[in-house]
Design brief:
Strand content: under 5%
Largest sheet: 2 strands, antiparallel
Helix content: 55-70%
Distance between the termini: 24 Å
Number of helices: 13
Strand order of the largest sheet: 1-2
Order of helices and strands: HHHEEHHHHHHHHHH
Oligomer: single chain
Structural class: mainly alpha
Amino acid sequence: MYFLLLFSAFFIISCASKEPVVAVSETLDSAKVDTTEVFRDPEALRDLRKEGKFDELHKQLQMWEAKEPNNLEMFVAYFNYYVNRKMTSQIMLGEDALYESRKFDKDDVVVAVGYLDKGLKIAPNRLDMRMGKIYILNEIERYEDAGNELYAALEASKKIDNKWLWRDNEEFGGGEKGFLSAAQGHYDLWFDKGTEAALKQFKRCTEKQIELYPEDVFAYNNMAGYYYAKKETQKVLEYLLQAELKAPNDCVVLLNIGKIYLEKEDKEKAKKYFTKVLDIGDEEEKDIAKYFLEKL
């Protein structure tokens, strides 16, 4: 859920099942490499990367670049090459489950981003490149640079009316909703990191999103989450009430408001919001509302 009830998570709508440009872990079947023009077969290139055959992969990319120096997919392939060739990963034990921890070579990432920049100069509306760039900058903790990129993407989204392209210059098709959902993943990362540098970009880009998309409920929830992390309860409530005005029957918003009133010990108002969820929520939302009503 976005800006979940206990302010610990965010709701992310999938972006029309489109994969990010960063291909750091793939599970394709192995392909035999028996041609000098492997670059014309993206699956074969992915197999070379998966198998760790980076020297051969680099040769193929050089041939591709020589024949098609402005090919956008070639820039993406180079990006994935540099991001992956020195990337290391290991399985870590988290609080609730195992997770994969990845480390990227920062010098290689700089080179990788340079290839995306070349592509974006040709096709600034390639959303996969923009999102991939923001993702990898965040991964190496260059939060200000990542924030600058998301801020620029927000501005560009209005200028092009969210007519984005994706891989192979296909129409993205997600429109405003798809774009903002794609952006939400970056907000999640900043919020989860919780450092001053990360939260600064979280707040800055969220404020820009509210300016550009004042009817979008996500952004108000984001700001409420930011102020919750800062323990500024009144600010949290102000943004949640704005969210309620935009979406009066959004049960996550209603539950969050009820939770804040409960923390403020205003049981009457808390009961009002939890009871409304009982009337209009789905089963999961109703169960949460019941839980808090029992605490009153």
